[in-house]
Amino acid sequence: MSEHPRRMQVLQAIVEDYVASREPVGSKALVERHRLGVSSATVRNDMAALEEEGLIVAPHTSAGRIPTDKGYRVFVDQISEVKPLSAAERRAVQALLESTDDVNEMMARTVRLLAQLTNQVAVVQYPHLDASTIRQLEVVSLAPRRVLVVVILSSGQVDQRLFATEQDAAETSLEVLKQLFRRHLDGLTPAQAVDGLRAALASVPAADRELATTMAEQLDQLLAARREDRILLAGTANLARSPGDFPYSIGPILEALEEQVVLLRLLAEMEADVRGLSVRIGSENTGSLAETSVIAAGYGPGAEAKLGVVGPTRMDYPGTMTAVRAIARYLSRILSQ
C-alpha cells in the first residue's frame, strides 16, 4: 500500500466520506469531492485494487464501496500526527476538570465530557491512586463475640469494620493476632495486603486459626474497596443513534459494556502505540464487542488506568483519537498536582 500513495489517498477519501454520510461511496463522488487529480476510470481501478486487498467492499447491490475492518486499520495506522484539541475545547476541558478536587466528581465529569466530545460511549477506569500504605492496625473487643478492626493508612484515611465471632474472643488471642497481622501488613499497600494476609494466616497458632481466618476475611473486605477496579460509563445512548452501524442488536454490546470484567480485561490488554494510544477495530475485539471499535489511552500514575471510547467501526478516528489523548493528558496533569 505504501508504494501506492494515490491508492492510500483514495482509501482515506472513502473512509472520510463514509464516516460522514454513512452512504457507500462511488468513484464519481470521490472525483467530485476530493482533488485526486485523476479521472473516474483511474479511481475505479484504484478502488478495484483496494477491494482485491480486502480494504473496501461493496455492500449488497450498491455501486458504492465501504471500508472493511482491515481498511479502517490501514487508515488508522497511517495517521502519523494526532492533532491537538481546538483552543475552545481546551478551555472547556480545563475549566471543567480543574474546578473540583473530588476524584469521584472528576471521574464523572471526565466521562461525560469525553462522551460529548466524541458522540460515543465514554469509559473511564478509576485511577490507581491508592499508593497509601497500612500504617496502623487496631483490634478491639467491643462486646462478647463482637470485634472491631481498624486500619489507618499513611494518607490518614481510617477504615473500620465490626464483625461477629463464633465464640468469645479471648483478649490474649486478639493481642497475639493483632501483633501477627501488624507484622505482616505494616507498610503494604491495599493491593499488596492480599499476600500479607496469606502469609499471616500461614503462621497462626492452631488454637487461634478460626478467629484468625474470620479476621483475615474482614480485613480483606475492608481493604478491597481501596484496590477495586471500577469503571464509569457515559453516553451509552449514543450507540442507539446510529442503528444502521450495528446490523444485529445493540443489546449484547450494552451487556458487554455493563459487564465491567469484560471491559477491564479489554483495557488491560490494550497497549499504547507510539502515539500514546491504543486502537482496536471491529474483529480485533472478541465476543459482543467485535462490531465496535475501541480507542483508549493510559493516564495517572504509571499510565496504568485507562480511559477511552467504544463506538461503531464507522467512527471519526482522527477526532476521537485527539479527544481521548488530550483528556488523558489533562487528567494525568491534574492528578499529579
Walk me through the structure:
It contains 13 helices and ten strands. The model has no long low-confidence stretch (mean pLDDT 88). Strand 9 and strand 10 form a beta hairpin. The protein starts with a helix and ends with a helix. It folds into three domains: 73 residues, Winged helix-like DNA-binding domain superfamily/Winged helix DNA-binding domain (Arc Repressor Mutant, subunit A, Orthogonal Bundle), CATH 1.10.10; 147 residues, GAF domain (Beta-Lactamase, 2-Layer Sandwich), CATH 3.30.450; 94 residues, Enolase-like, N-terminal domain (Enolase-like, domain 1), CATH 3.30.390. It is of the alpha+beta class and 337 residues long. The strands form three sheets. The chain has a five-stranded antiparallel sheet, sandwiched between helices. It has a three-stranded antiparallel sheet with strand order 4-5-6. The protein has a two-stranded antiparallel sheet with strand order 1-2.
Number of helices: 13
**Order of neighbouring strands in the sheet with most strands:** 7-3-10-9-8
CATH topology of the largest domain: Beta-Lactamase
CATH homologous superfamily identity of the largest domain: GAF domain
Give the topology.
Elements: H1 5-21, H2 27-33, H3 40-52, E1 56-57, E2 66-67, H4 69-77, H5 87-97, H6 103-118, E3 121-125, E4 134-143, E5 146-153, E6 158-164, H7 171-185, H8 193-202, H9 209-227, E7 231-234, H10 237-240, H11 251-258, H12 260-269, E8 278-281, E9 292-299, E10 305-312, H13 317-335
Antiparallel strand pairs: 1-2, 3-7, 3-10, 4-5, 5-6, 8-9, 9-10
Helix pairs in contact: 1-3, 2-3, 5-13, 6-13, 7-8, 8-9
